[in-house]
Design goal:
By secondary structure, the protein is of the alpha+beta class. It has helices spanning 5-43, 47-63, 133-141, 158-162, and strands spanning 73-77, 84-94, 101-108, 116-122, 127-128.
Amino acid sequence: WLLAPWFKSLLAALITVLSLYLLGWVTTRVLGKRLVALFESLIERIPLVQTVYGATKKLISALQQKPDNVQRVVLIEFPTPEMRAVGFVTQVLTDEKTGRKLAAVYVPTTPNPTSGYLEIVPLERVVSTDWSVDEAMTFIISGGTVSPGGINYGSVTAEEQAKP
C-alpha cells in the first residue's frame, strides 16, 4: 500500500501543507519581526510622523493593560451631565489633598479612535460597562451602528424620570 497512487498523493498533499505552514511560521517569527523593526526605524527618522506613530503605539499598549479594580470600558458624563461618552480608563489616580480617587479616561472620537480627549473624572462618576475593549472600539469606529447589545447608562434620578 506504500506504493499505491492514493497514498503517494495523500503523502504529497500532507507534506505540502506542512511545508507551507512551517514556511509561514518561520516568516512570521523571523522575517516579520525584522520587517516591523525596519518599518519602525524608518518611522523614527520622520519627525512629525514619529510623534503620531509613537503616541498611537503607546495608546494601544496602554489599552491592553487593565487598571486596578476598575472596568476598562466605561461611560462618563460628557459633554453635559445628561449625555454619556464611551471611554477607556487608562489609570486611576489619587488626589493628593483629598485622597479622592480619580480616573484618567480616554474618550476616543468617531471614526478615528486614535484622536480623542483625556478626561479626569471622579471614580464615583464613572459608569462601568460589561463591554470588552474590542466591542467598544467597534461601537466607536462604526459610529454606534454596531453595538454589543445592552448598555448600563447609569442611575436615573427621580427628577430625570419626571422629565418628558
